[in-house]
Amino acid sequence: AKYDDGFFISRHFRYNGRDPLQLQCLAVMRDPSLMTIRDLRSHHLPLLREVRERTYSVLQEKCGVEKKYLRLYFHYPPSYHRLHVHITHVGGNDKSQSAPRAVMLDEVIDNLERDGMYYARASK
């Protein structure tokens, strides 16, 4: 696991650490008040950008997977209420990345850049 002040990256228990196509990791936020994307505001943008950039560099270094092959997304609603980003390989068969509840990290960042209260105001 790679630790930072605001989050840590952990290998998912299903990932064996060998086949990059089966890559499954989580970036888990340390702040317990962040439970879902609805808790995110514009002041969380530096944290979200750091998650994105750190994930790219750590997985390139540790797994040899370039950022163009990584998919970073949230689930809404989440499977458990501690904000976390799913990290998978775009070529893998993780069905949760194409599920209707998958919300891409870049989309969340874009929405918060346009409206810092976007997810507080969202109807669902």
Summarize this entry quickly:
This protein has 124 residues and is of the alpha+beta class. The chain has helices spanning 45-63, 105-114, 118-121; strands at residues 2-3, 7-11, 24-29, 70-75, 84-89, 102-104.
Describe this structure as you would to a colleague.
This protein has helices at residues 45-63, 105-114, 118-121, and strands at 2-3, 7-11, 24-29, 70-75, 84-89, 102-104. By secondary structure, it is of the alpha+beta class. The chain has a single domain, classed as HIT family, subunit A (2-Layer Sandwich), CATH 3.30.428.10. Strands 1-2-3-5-4-6 form a six-stranded antiparallel beta sheet. Helix 1 (45-63) runs antiparallel to helix 2. The model has no long low-confidence stretch (mean pLDDT 90).
Please outline the helices and strands:
Layout: E1 2-3, E2 7-11, E3 24-29, H1 45-63, E4 70-75, E5 84-89, E6 102-104, H2 105-114, H3 118-121
Antiparallel strand pairs: 1-2, 2-3, 3-5, 4-5, 4-6
Helix pairs in contact: 1-2
Q: Helical stretch count?
A: 3
CATH architecture annotation name = 2-Layer Sandwich
* Quantity of strands, as a count: 6
CATH superfamily: HIT-like
Order of helices and strands: EEEHEEEHH
Straight-line distance between termini: 32 Å
Highest-level CATH class:
Alpha Beta
Low-confidence stretches: none
Counted up, domains total 1
Radius of gyration: 14 Å
